[in-house]
Design goal:
Helices cover about 70% and strands about 0% of the residues. The protein has about 50 residues and is mainly alpha-helical. It comes from Nostoc flagelliforme CCNUN1.
Length: about 50
């Protein structure tokens, strides 16, 4: 039988895995880029008058 803290320790180990950190960092980077481009769009598609 597992100790009550084993599940918490395993979850913290899982969150520190490289694939999880990679997905989170790529998601944050893409979200930042998308929000930036929403407020300041590329001049190629929205030329200045």
């Amino acid at each position: 039988m597992q100790k009550p803290n084993d599940q918490k320790d395993n979850f913290l180990k899982y969150l520190s895995l490289a694939p999880v950190l990679a997905v989170v960092s790529v998601s944050v980077a893409f979200s930042t880029w998308a929000i930036f481009n929403y407020f300041l769009p590329d001049l190629l598609f929205h030329p200045m008058p």
